[in-house]
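Here comes an entry:

___
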Amino acid sequence: MNGTISYLDRLENSKDRTMSKKIKIEAEFEELAWEELTIEEQQLMMRARKVSESAYAPYSNFHVGAAVRLASGEILQSSNQENVSFPVGVCAERLVLGYAGANFPDLAVREIAIVARRKGEEIWASVSPCGLCRQTINEMEMRFDRPMTILIQNPDGSVLRFQGIQTLLPFKFDDLNG
């Protein structure tokens, strides 16, 4: 071998080194009583609650509502729409963010409110966006180079407030061109 180190040599030499590390991820967010929300945040949550009633969820009976506030102040909303072929169903968050992007391509989403509950139940469920929805929120933040406020309803009536998707998606899939 003319001066090169083979993969097996590197492997043999690496046996003496410990490669494991313990890494801790901390999450920072707020848990607020309804009264602690701004009037605008309460409005957004109410719109998400109302639109959850229009969910088409005959298979899960899990009704999700999402409402967004655009940079212009306009509010858009949507609910989940299921399909007997489960992968075809669309989450409320992705539906409203897709609509915002297609119809208001130059306006950033400032806030998103998310609520969910089982059909016929009074108590709101503990919910957070699925992985696809988290990645969609991430893409919208990258598109406009600004984090959005994420509001999530808790069963006890409190609301979680996140500043950007980073806390909910610490290992996000970022721009492939950068």
Summary: The mean pLDDT is 91.
